[in-house]
Design brief:
- With about 200 residues, this protein is mostly helical.
- It folds into 2 domains: about 1-30 and about 150-204, Orthogonal Bundle (Endonuclease Iii, domain 2); about 40-145, Hypothetical protein, domain 2 (Endonuclease III, domain 1), CATH 1.10.340.30.
- Helices cover about 65% and strands about 0% of the residues.
- It has 13 helices and no strands.
- It has helices at about 1-15, 15-25, 40-50, 55-65, 70-75, 80-85, 90-105, 110, 120-125, 135-145, 155-165, 175-180, 185-195.
- The longest helix is centred in the middle third of the chain and has 16 residues, at about 90-105.
- It is elongated and about 55 Å long.
- InterPro entries: Alkylbase_DNA_Glycosylase/TA (IPR051912), DNA_glycosylase (IPR011257), HhH-GPD_domain (IPR003265).
- This is DNA-3-methyladenine glycosylase II.
Length: about 200
């Protein structure tokens, strides 16, 4: 993956002078996809919605203390109070139950998911109540290591683009897609650098 990231850095630096400056300051891309079984990754992404990475990791650790291994059958046995004890909110509980219901009906869903192209992957994931485009993009980027994902629904990415490109307001989806077109086929790597740029956002 290091060689791929080197190619991505060169490509992005050639195509975008603003990204080039961010890349020079941030250094090597340290994005590390963490593939796991699809059910586990789907549960993780539900937990991670709208909270910090640190908080999500803590909640997931509490869940895994109760559910070993992470299977649909074991998750089904958890009560609402069990979920709350792990720190999982009611809406996220409902999303996990919806996921389990979907898996029970669509028997091949978990097996087929890793084989799908990016757009088909998104369409498959957003059919599950409680999982939207942002969740699908995070799975593609951090779970399956897809290199050309542009998470247009991510607030951190929107803030980075607004600040780096000196926009008056948060960018629209259309603006983000147009701006990121030259970054193909490494929009995931570009996004990682945009997230990194938030570390020094107070300097803008």
């Amino acid at each position: 993956m290091n060689e791929t990231y080197q190619k991505a850095r060169r490509h992005l630096s050639r195509r975008d002078p603003i990204l080039k400056a961010v890349i020079q300051r941030a250094g090597k891309c340290l994005l590390t996809p963490r593939p796991d079984d699809p059910l586990t990754m789907l549960v993780k992404v539900v937990i991670s919605q709208q909270i910090s990475v640190k908080a999500a990791a803590s909640i997931y650790a509490r869940l895994t203390e109760r559910v070993k291994p992470m299977t649909a059958a074991k998750l089904r046995k958890l009560t609402p109070d069990d979920f709350v004890a792990c720190g999982i909110s009611r809406p996220k509980q409902r999303a996990i139950v919806s996921l389990l219901d979907h898996v029970a009906v669509e028997k091949a869903f978990l097996k087929q998911l890793p084989t799908l192209e990016d757009e088909a992957f998104r369409e498959a994931v957003v059919r599950i109540k409680g999982l939207g485009p942002w969740s699908a993009d995070m799975l593609l980027m951090f779970g399956f290591g897809r290199l050309d994902v542009m998470p247009v629904g991510d607030l951190g990415i929107k803030l980075a683009i607004r600040d780096l490109w000196k926009l008056d307001a948060l960018p629209s989806v259309q603006t983000m897609l147009e701006l990121s077109e030259p970054w193909r086929p490494y929009r995931t790597v570009a996004s990682w650098y945009l997230w990194r740029s938030r570390d020094w956002a107070e300097e803008y």
